[in-house]
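Q: My collaborator sent me two sequences in one message, no labels, and asked for predicted structures for both. Can we handle them in order? The first one she listed is below.
A: Yes, handling them in the order given. First sequence, followed by its structure tokens:
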Amino acid sequence: MFLLLLLPPALAAQGLPPAPRALGLPAPGPVGDGPYAPQPILPGGIVMPLYPAGSPLLKADRVKEAEVYNMSQTVAGRISSIVNIHNPSMEIHRVERNLNTGAVVILAAGGGHNTLNVGGESADFVPFFYNYGVNTVILRNRLRKDGYVAEVDAVNDALQAIRMVRAYAAEFQFDPQKIGIVGFSAGAELSAPAAVLFPQFESQRNEPGDPLRGVSARPDFVGMIYPGPSPFARNRTAPEIPANVPPAFLATGGSGDRMHAIWALDYFGAMLAKGVPNIELHVYGNGRHPGDALPDGTRMTGGLTDRGGMPLGTWQFRMMDWMRDLGFLGKPGVETKAARDVAEYVKNPPRIRPAGAPRGN
């Protein structure tokens, strides 16, 4: 009788038992004497800290602290976001051998550098990319809210992840020439710098004792989805664009997400002005930023959602078209069109007519 009183009226009337609780829920690891050991947020994830224990790049007074998970209030076991990240890591998810293209996408979630929205902007993409034979890596980078400088610490975490994925490529059957990083909103503030600042990062980490010495931090492709400001934003000093800058895919809403569209255009325009090959931009006329309210009162959610039938909800398929066109979905070990185009660009850079110069006949 006591159980029946706890049931909804319809179930109680039918004499049904309560539904069982969800099992196997992910949880942060325990706090111990050593650095915190990040736990997988999805089944089967292989988690690797980005820096060795005792690294001067970590805060010794905080590296033992456990991460804090913000769980979904509806879906049991779904981690919506993570904060308190002091031992940054990467979580690897592989695809079956018969599907494997060798390509890897490092997923950099957004959250305004205050939280890491790993649910809608990382975990959801693992099965999506799996179906295309693309391996995935969920990046857990440090946050401004936890006392870090996003433009330095978080960007370094992204570049370090690229180096680590490349260093372990043979062990995981990855193609070291097909490693990309895709960032969402604030996460795009990591993928965009990764595309242009990797030479400086590599030169600063060339010490004899570095186990990753000589491993390139250059991404082979980058994605920027409803991006935050890039190094080419109008209030910043633009860096030099390296000759072997990787191809980029950008997608955002337009007037409904105006500022992020402007930031996408800043990056696209800088690349276009230099004649960089294979830069693709989609600005959708109807779209809002995740978290923004729609006219019907509902709110936009993460990166991989239908968005009520908006064309913006199909950006991920346009990205797969782009990746296929550049050869990233082909067999591992085969040179991609992207690599050939970069090599040609480095060898024969286009002649760029200065702005305002008269056109020839």
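Q: And the one she listed second?
A: Here it is, processed independently of the first:
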Amino acid sequence: MITNPTIETLLARRSVRAYKPEQITDEERDTILNVGVWSPTGMNNQSTRFIVVQSPEMRAKLFDAAGAFPNRGGNPFYDAPTIVLIFADQSACTPFQDGCIAAVNMQNAAASLGVASCWINCAKELFSTEAGKALHQELCLEAGLEPVCAVILGYAAESPAPKPRTEGRVRCV
């Protein structure tokens, strides 16, 4: 297998669910967000929007809104110091895909900088609740922007070990 620093980063990245309270640097945050902004989008519509939540007050509001979900235990944001909410303009040709590409690119950029991350899938569900709709307005999000996911960022309090890969997932024809 060919290897280089990019391949090594991609293979080593893991989803982290335990974070130190220390905030990432502004430079790390801005670099990761710039990667999201420069991620490809369908027909170059640039449909993605990023809301960065670092204030303890807004993080608490997100946690409270997400805590209203039945059958969910604990903080779905794992107490990460930075939460990036990814929204996409639903009038674009590929809004969900655009948001997904940005999320993955930002996670890989974070890994290359030594910043841990995890994809958080509850954003769509969170913003469909009454509390979430109020947060949508409080965050001054324009109409037509729908949540895709969230990416949490911080410094890992523990690093998960890689799990074995399932055999037979690739077929060359």
